[in-house]
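User: I'm writing a tutorial on reading structure tokens. Could you give me a worked example: one chain, its sequence, then its tokens, then a sentence or two explaining what the tokens reveal?
Assistant: Sure. Here is the example chain.
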Amino acid sequence: MSEKHTPLAIARHMLENDAFSRWMGVEIVEADAGKSLLKMEIRDNMTNGFGVTHGGIIFALADSALAFAAGSHGIVSLALDNKISYVKPSHTGDLLTAKAVEEHLGRQIGVYNITITNQAGKTTALMRGTVFRTNTQVEL
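And here are its predicted structure tokens:
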């Protein structure tokens, strides 16, 4: 991998071109081969009618962490299957962190575990994601 195509450079490129993750306020904390660590603060317009963070927002944060971890190898990867469990609610003002870790990397398939935690380090959601690795290189 060239210096230009480091996992961090790829993650930054992906975020620059991901309007939804930018709208959510996603920040890259770490990016390494097969791993990513993202954070974002929950805003009022991210909550449902009960004042709890909308599940779609949590899913989107986990999905972004998955994408950055899977893309870290410089290959365009597309989600095939994601399963999420919401284990603790979050609310406006909470700072959530999404950590994606590669569990399997094959020629065409990658499998990742994503853990979402709050500012107190409590797990709020768990996702398992599977991606298809295309034959297309990430172009920076």
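What the tokens reveal: The beta strands are 27-32, 35-41, 75-86, 95-105, 109-117, 123-137. The chain has a mean pLDDT of 96.
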